[in-house]
Design goal:
The protein is an all-alpha fold and 271 residues long. Helices cover 62% and strands 0% of the residues. It is built from twelve helices and no strands. α4 packs antiparallel against α5, α6 packs antiparallel against α7 and α8 runs antiparallel to α9.
Length: 271
């Protein structure tokens, strides 16, 4: 018997991603993403209609400005849960960001769409790892407030694939490469070694996600006759990208395909 939430057999991958993208339950969104079949046909030229309601979100967490969010000492279970909840929220946003690229932007190679569905699946795995760890601590996703900065950037870049690929994986998500070692060390210092192991999994796979962002950003720049480095600096100003702060995880950024010219500029200017 076919599952009710499964896409029709004749549906192509770029339309099928709307099912998890619109899901309002966070765990269901992750599970539906993991269930997406990469064997579905891909119509690269189809214009997929916007169904509205993107992305589907649960009633909680309450979303507020990131400057309004408070932290608590990591020596307390609630303090560790707050930190892990923030990471879970980033991972849930990352599912939506990867899926949104698939349906929204037509005319890219088939491998582009498969890459972002694979990335969405890994983000779903990350979310579930953290969510299940939170449950084991007596908390759950939605227990604390969160911010909407990642999706706000998605909204600003919704009509420009160069900006979306340039600023979401290469800027917003690359911040995670910088932050991950410090977060892991804090969690381990607080005695949460299981969370530290989850952070290792996330960092290893996020390097691949940012690398895909670098690869496809350079591809779209090449197809449009744009210089990747100067265009990136223009995009930062045009879309008011957040200024990055040191320390930078240069090793991870090199593995993710950032060029030395970009890393030198980053070290000197932040962005």
């Amino acid at each position: 018997m076919a599952r009710q939430d499964a896409p029709p057999l004749n549906q192509h991958l770029r339309a099928a991603v709307l099912c998890p993208l619109l899901a309002q339950n966070a765990v269901q969104k992750a599970e539906l993403t993991l269930a997406l079949s990469l064997d579905l046909p891909i119509d690269t030229l189809a214009i997929v209609s916007d169904p509205g309601g993107i992305p589907g979100r649960p009633a909680k967490p309450e979303l507020m400005a990131h400057t309004s969010l408070k932290s608590k000492p990591l020596t307390t279970p609630e303090g560790r849960a707050l930190l892990l909840h923030a990471i879970a929220h980033i991972e849930l946003n990352a599912i939506d960001l990867a899926l949104d690229v698939v349906w929204r932007f037509a005319g890219m190679p088939e491998d582009f769409y498969r890459d972002w569905v694979r990335i969405a699946k890994e983000e779903a795995k990350h979310f579930l790892l953290i969510q299940q760890h939170l449950v084991g601590m007596g908390f759950d996703y939605g227990h604390f407030p969160a911010h909407n900065s990642l999706w706000e950037m998605a909204e600003r870049t919704r009509a420009d694939i160069v900006a979306r690929i340039g600023l979401v994986p290469r800027t917003m998500e690359a911040r995670g490469l910088d932050a991950s070692p410090g977060v892991k060390n804090k969690l381990i210092s607080a005695g949460d070694h299981a969370a530290g192991r989850i952070m290792d999994i996330i960092l290893e796979e996020e390097i691949g996600h940012v690398a895909a962002g670098n690869r496809w950003y350079r591809y779209v720049c090449e197809t449009k006759g744009l210089d990747p480095i100067s265009t990136y600096r223009q995009l930062i100003q045009q879309y008011d990208a957040p200024k990055l702060k040191s320390p930078y995880n240069l090793q991870a950024r090199r593995l993710a395909g950032f060029e030395e010219e970009e890393l030198s500029y980053l070290a000197a200017n932040g962005l």
